[in-house]
Amino acid sequence: MAELQLKSHRFREEREADWRRLEWLLSRVEGGSPDRLSSNQLLEIPVLYRQALSSLSVARSISLDQGLTDYLESLCTRAYFVVYGARTSLWERIGRFFRHDWPAAVRGLWRETLVATAIGVAGVIVAMVLIRQDPDWYFSFVPRELAAGRDPTASAAFLRETLFKPQTTDQGLSALATFLFTHNAQIAIFAFALGFAFCVPTAALMSFNGAMLSAFLSLFISRGLGVEAGGWLFIHGVTELFAVTLAGAAGFAIGWAAAFPGQASRTEAIAAAGRRAATVMVGVVLMLFVAGLLEGFARQLIQVTWIRYAVAASTALVWGVYFYLPRPEPSAR
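Request: output the structure for the sequence above.
Response:
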């Protein structure tokens, strides 16, 4: 035992100065003062880190005292995160998400986005044909409680009033915006979450969402209010429908990976697709929040059809440029 203690003492004595030096440098970096270190001091850190790793390996192999081993493990762990970890603040990470991660993830799902769009358009066409042949099909796509009187029995005057009847209190606007955000978020989350079932439920939701849109527009078009209804819908619908389409695309990405994993295992393929899809979905929730504000506030406050279309066109331009305008890759840090 005495010989082991002597060996441990000599081991520490020969190397402790380097450990203390590394500990001091790490404390400066972790304390938010790396700019106060010179270039040579910064270059010391990886060298001292490798020396500490070597010391830890020796300490473990010759069974030195546990206290020394614990100290070296802690020191090496701290140094690892300084040398290899991401040294960015929370705000820098948020900025990177909006500048690069979210748009890149959306662009990466361009095929799935086209598929989700095509299925939604197919739902629009099918519903429009069916309702034109028989108006009773309307209730197959729009639940009576959601229609709130906007159905084939409604008069043109009543339907026009629903398009241009403003809310008179801020409390009513807030409640409406909250309800609409919650409702639309649920649709998007279901389209994403059910994608793992080989895309089938997601495709059904995309189709049904398009059919609901078509049924609504068909009703107003039949009363000569198609232009007005389009302004009422698209002032928020551009953002909302795009968000739901992206959620469907994220669901398709996971479902496709589950059905056709390729060279990777099914678990690995789903995990890889899920990481990109999750990034898209974080942004989708933000888009739905914006759509809820537009639907609950802007649509009720703006009573001029052409201004509603102007807002809709502006949002389409903003989202299109934001997601699909080419941009340089961020520099590695």
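The chain has two domains: 2-87, 92-324.
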